Amino acid sequence: MNEDFNMSMRKFLKQVGVTSQQAIEEAMRNAGETAGKTYEAKVVLTVDGLDIEHVVSGQITGASD
């Protein structure tokens, strides 16, 4: 793959990571008491024009303040 592709991919993935973390943190603050609670999380990635559906699942545990 060429350098332009690598840079655009890295920029996209960084944006996904940063904005996803911000959204989760905000949701946890708005939910109230989340300490010790575990939440099932799932991300579904699709790309228009490509035959791809990539699913990542995991758990997020609320932090104690």
Shape: elongated
> Would you tell me the overall average pLDDT?
94
Sheet with most strands: strand arrangement: 1-2
Structural class: alpha+beta
- Helix fraction, binned, reads 40-55%
Major sheet description: 2 strands, antiparallel
Strand elements, count: 2
Distance between the termini: 44 Å
Question: What's the quaternary structure here?
Answer: single chain
Bin the strand percentage: 25-35%
The helix count comes to: 1
What is the string of helix and strand elements?
HEE
Uncertain runs: none
Return Rg in Å: 15 Å
Model description:
Helices cover about 45% and strands about 30% of the residues. With about 60 residues, it is α+β, with helices and mostly antiparallel strands. The chain has one domain. The protein has a two-stranded antiparallel ribbon with strand order 1-2. Strand 1 and strand 2 form a beta hairpin. It starts with a helix and ends with a strand. The model has no long low-confidence stretch (mean pLDDT about 95). Pfam families: DUF6494 (PF20104). InterPro entries: DUF6494.
Topology:
Elements: H1 3-31, E1 38-46, E2 53-61
Antiparallel strand pairs: 1-2
Which labels suit this protein?
65 residues; alpha+beta; two-stranded antiparallel sheet; 2 strands; elongated
Short description:
By secondary structure, this protein is an alpha+beta fold.
